[in-house]
Amino acid sequence: MTIDKYVIQVEQSLLDAMKKIEENKQGFIIILEDHTVVGTMTDGDIRRALIAGKDISSTVKEVINLSFEYLLTTATFVEIVEKFKSEKIDFLPVVDKKFILKNIITKAQFHDFLLEGKKINIVERFKDIELKMKSFEIFNRPWGFYKTVFLSEFVRAKIIQVFPGQQLSLQFHKKREEHWIIIKGQGKITIEESIREVSAGSYIFIPKGCKHRIKNLSENELLTISEIQLGTYFGEDDIIRIEDDYNRL
Q1: Spatial distance between the Cα atoms of 77 and 85, rounded to a whole number of angstroms
Q2: Sequential DSSP letters for 186-213
Q3: Stretch among 20-34, 131-145, 162-176, 209-223 having the lowest mean pLDDT
Q4: Rounded Cα gap, residues 28 and 39, in angstroms
Q5: Is 195 exposed, middle or buried (0-12, 13-18, 19+ CB in 10 A)?
Q6: Which residues contact 73 (CB under 8 A, 6 or more apart)?
Q7: Where in the chain is the domain with CATH 2.60.120.10?
């Protein structure tokens, strides 16, 4: 993590602060006096200051939030969790006893570390970790759409929605197994030579290399599926299609 784009000196202008916040894309800045943390500021703080009559040449010192939350480098896991329970706290500067800035942790980043099972060391800067939670787009497919809700090196979780009367291709995967739970709707699942109907609460295990597909049997309702992938690779290019209604072979 490059700390420079997350900090600003107390005598600099609001314009300087706005430029820093635009650069770091996180919506906040840490205020320093020399090397000591003296406050924080968010884009909302700047907006409210401008509405109240300040201008962009005003100093950061005039708008600074002096009652800021922080973590000491000696903070325990429980302390971090308790701090981030507040809906008002999205980030925390990490300081030593002299209030020298040692790190910055965001709530989203903290959640990512926990979910991915990574060791958290709050005094070691997360140089290779973005200060934002992973966000996944919705991807449309001719049969419906899906959204990845979690992805790490060992697991991927998706929500799949299949349009009425549509079905996925008959396919298999070389590098992952899949676990499906039907959340809502009525479907017909094919696993190798076996075909059966499924509904809300049905669980389907799809081993690596196993041919499978699912069809939405409803004429007017979506079929909703929770999918967990376990394996060594989760790219869409690990879909080997055998049959497909949409000419994607």
Answers
A1: 13
A2: EEEEEETTEEEEEETT-EEEE-TT--EE
A3: 131-145
A4: 11
A5: exposed
A6: 94, 95, 96, 102, 103, 122, 123
A7: 138-243
Distance CA 177, CA 99 (A): 49
End-to-end CA distance of the chain: 43
Architecture of domain 138-243: Sandwich (2.60)
Assigned token pair, 4: 């420079």
203-216 per-position pLDDT tens digit: 999 999 999 999 99
d(CA 154, CA 86): 30
Indicate the fold that domain 3-115 takes in CATH: CBS-domain (3.10.580)
Instruction: Band the pLDDT of 134: cuts 50, 70, 90.
Output: low
25-58: burial string, b at 16+ Cβ within 10 Å, e else? ebebbbbbeeeebbbbbbeebbeebeeeeeeeeb
Q: d(Cα 44, Cα 60) in Å, to the nearest integer?
A: 13
Q: What is the pTM of this model?
A: 0.67
Token representation of residue 247: 């000419």
Q: Answer yes or no: is pLDDT of 124 > 90.
A: no
Q: Are strands 71-72 and 91-95 parallel, antiparallel or unpaired?
A: parallel
**Which ranges in the chain are annotated with CATH 3.10.580.10?**
3-115
Reading the block at residue 115, the tokens are: 């979910």
